[in-house]
Amino acid sequence: MSPFPTIEDFIGHTPLVRLQRMNPNPSNTILAKLEGNNPAGSVKDRPAMNMIRQAQLRGQISPGDTLIEATSGNTGIALAMAAAIMGYKMTLIMPANQSEERRASMRAYGASIISVSAQEGMEHARDLAQRMQAQGLGIVLDQFSNPDNPQAHYLSTGPEIWQDSQGQVTHFIASMGTTGTIMGCSRYLKEQNPAVQIIGLQPTDGAQIPGIRRWPEAYLPSIFDAQRVDSIIDMDQSSAEHAMKRLAAEEGIFAGVSSGGSIAGALLLSERVNNAVIVAIVCDRGDRYLSTGVYNS
Predict the structure, then answer these.
(1) Which amino acid positions bind pyridoxal 5'-phosphate, per UniProt (predicted)?
(2) Residue 258 in marked binding region
(3) pLDDT in the model for residue 282
(4) In the chain, which ranges are continuous DSSP H helix?
(5) Domains identified in the chain and CATH numbers
(6) What number is the average pLDDT over the span 161-177?
(7) Does the chain have fewer CB atoms within 10 Å around its N or its C terminus?
């Protein structure tokens, strides 16, 4: 075996850094988990690799097979990378209103992209993926119901947060899309200290924050267990975007809109509690949103 690592070996072990200027309450510490430092640029690198690897170990897929997944962006990029690493073909189905940087990144890794309209959205994309699988066109990993998604965070993200916060974390905040991050981290952190508070973020009605959703009941991810979340914050788009811009300009952390939502939630929480160590997931980098104009104003 070669003594030299491969790109896969650099998934995870991302920095946990302290906010220096934005925190409104000096009795608290706000720590940002910089998941944009993963090789494909987001927190989704972890479950993408784990879902493919575990399916391969179970004999459900073999290199050369075609994988299909509905995605709003980050999971698609991560799966395209993981498929390239492990020798799979990747077909991704996504709404047409996602940023061109995301599409270009997926194509760069060799993935094929099928677009559905913004009106049809992720629900239609998920339905189409299942129909394609039924037609024998590939295998759906299904991040929304696949336990290998939260398992990735139970095995890596949660332990990293606990170790790097020196076991002092009191509150954990994550935006909710597939809910894999919050489910896996909640399970691990609560096992270490049941008093750790788990806070999920979902968008207010009408908000278009990439990567997080307020799902209709019929499409709620089956991996989601409401009992693992202590409270939920409804986040409006302007607050998420404002925090995102402050994060870059005041802290030097260039991130996306859902990351801004996590930080906005952490700031709100910091105004309400004292002597807390608040960990927020900064799930990706800001460069994949530049074409949307969100950083222009």
Answers:
(1) 74, 177-181, 258
(2) yes
(3) 98
(4) 45-57, 74-86, 100-108, 121-134, 148-152, 158-164, 180-192, 237-251, 257-270
(5) 7-37+155-292 (3.40.50.1100), 44-140 (3.40.50.1100)
(6) 97
(7) N
123 neighbors 94 (Cβ within 8 angstroms)? no
- Please compute the mean of the pLDDT values over residues 61-81 and round it to a whole number: 94
Q: Is 170 annotated as a binding residue?
A: no
CB neighbour list of residue 21: distance below 8 Å, 6 or more residues apart: 250, 251
Question: Is residue 87 part of an annotated ligand binding site?
Answer: no
Cβ neighbours around 53 below 10 Å, total = 17
Distance CA 111, CA 246 (A): 34
The answer to whether residue 175 is catalytic is: no
Q: For tokens 């302290």, what's the residue?
A: 18
- Residue 95: pLDDT band by 50, 70, 90 thresholds? confident
Q: Which among 42, 165, 175, 258 is annotated as catalytic? A: 258
Higher-scoring residue by pLDDT: 208, 196: 196
Q: What is the pLDDT, as a whole number, of residue 293?
A: 86
Catalytic hit among 33, 42, 44, 105: 44
